[in-house]
Amino acid sequence: MIRTRALTKDFVVGRTQTVHAVRGISLDVEPGELVAVLGPNGAGKTTTLRMLTTLIPPTAGTAEVAGYDVVAHPDRVRAAIGYVGQGGAAGASQLVRDELVTQGEIYGLDRRRARDRANELLEALDLTEQADRKVESLSGGQKRRLDVAVGLVHEPSLLFLDEPSTGLDPHNRANLWEHILRMRTAAAEPMTIVLTTHYLDEADTFAERVIVVDHGQVIADDTADALKAELAGDLVTLRVAPEHAAALAAVAERAPGTRSVRVETSGEAGREASTVEIRTADGPGATPGLLRAADGAGLQVSRVDVARPTLDDVFLGLTGRSLRETAVVDTPGVEPLETGEHPTGEHSTSEDTTKKEVLA
Ligand SMILES: Nc1ncnc2c1ncn2[C@@H]1O[C@H](COP(=O)(O)OP(=O)(O)OP(=O)(O)O)[C@@H](O)[C@H]1O
Q1: pTM for this structure?
Q2: Residue ID of nearest Cα to ligand 1 atom 1
Q3: Could you tell me which CATH number the domain at 234-308 has?
């Protein structure tokens, strides 16, 4: 469904500076996959999506989407895909149903079919009650559901969602996901979905495959479970008296499956406590053996915690940085851009200069 080879995007900023936003990404997405692209701000997620959806041309490399090259056949790519950008696609002063009908007609449906499709989508995305209201009067969650409806109007087999749930509260996020998953399975062929997100839990729960991007490159690509097992491992935390910490750490180092051991001591003078943190492939499986070994060495463990890793642990393991702490665009000298702002002028196509990012 998607095939990229060494896909690259450089932005020339001012006269001298080049931002290497995407540095040679090669990936394949099969029909029916639900893929989350995860990474810190400025990692190149949106730029990758914008190339795949033909909104901006690659600097180098190739991308085929739905069987067509994005540079040679952008119109065919657009006809086959849906795209929900960060800015949203619906016009503020339009009525909700009219917006969907207009979008359907843009995609070549006759008026009657466009109305039928609009009604189908309004029902599927729980927007029937809001159908005769202006788009600008919708709540954040309703607005985002309408954006998804707009992306689906022409029944694409491949849907791109750029941070679909950013800014929504947990209830609305869950509700949006419920609708997305329902729409996906309701289609005759399971829809392929590629989305970007900052929400680790979202990628973890819903995506069947997680592609981690950092500094414009893919640094990991697998199921969330496989990434966590391979790259992070469970965390077993054993609490001991400080004088026993070093000996317990040595015991843990020798235990089967141990990947790393860290000792921490905290508390007021005279009342310190130590923890020995053990990263291991299988925490629940390793813990009884660790406790037996500690007991055999005469080391008393006063508390045991076993935590499964998160995708943040995966990112931390890969980069030494936490995804939660990398919330700032870190390209030196380049200010974060508003959607639609293009200092390079390199790709000032009509689609690209509008905040509405409608594929038509
Ligand atoms: N039009 C542009 N002109 C110049 N630089 C750009 C442009 N668009 C993106 N960039 C830069 O390219 C890099 C990748 O940006 P991109 O928006 O793809 O990241 P992202 O992973 O989607 O980030 P976020 O999570 O914040 O949306 C950043 O350094 C960004 O500042």
Answers
A1: 0.79
A2: 342
A3: 3.30.70.2520
Quick one: average pLDDT of 216-236? 90
Q: How many residues does the chain have?
A: 360
**What CATH architecture is 2-228+324-353?**
3-Layer(aba) Sandwich (3.40)
Is 85's C-beta closer than 6 angstroms to any atom of ligand 1? no
Q: In whole angstroms, give the CA distance from residue 37 to residue 207.
A: 9
329 lines ligand 1 (CB under 6 A): yes
Helical H segments across 19-139, by residue range:
45-52, 74-80, 96-106, 111-124
Could you tell which of 7, 37, 46 is best to mutate to test the pocket of ligand 1, judged by most ligand atoms within 8 Å of the CB?
46
Give pLDDT tens digits for 289-341.
Answer: 999 999 999 999 999 999 988 888 888 888 888 877 654 333 333 333 333 33
Annotated domain spans of the chain: 2-228+324-353, 234-308
**Which of 45, 47, 50, when mutated, tests ligand 1's pocket best, judged by the most ligand atoms within 8 Å of its CB?**
47
- From the CB of 72, is ligand 1 less than 6 Å away? no
For the Cβ of 49 lying below 6 angstroms from any atom of ligand 1, the answer is no
Eight-state DSSP code of residue 96: H
Residue with the nearest Cα to atom 29 of ligand 1?
A: 42
Going from the Cα of 199 to the center of ligand 1, the distance in angstroms, rounded, reads 18
Residue recorded with tokens 């996959």: 33
Please give the backbone phi and psi of residue 172, each rounded to the nearest 5 degrees, phi first: -70, -30
Is 37 close to ligand 1, i.e. is its CB under 6 Å away? no
The pLDDT tens digits for 176-204 are 888 888 888 877 777 899 999 888 888 88
Q: Which long-range contacts (CB under 8 A, 24 or more apart) does 71-76 make?
A: none
Give, in order, the Cα–Cα distances in Å from 133 to each of 94, 117, 137, 138, 175. 8, 18, 7, 8, 21
Tokens of 12: 């020339």
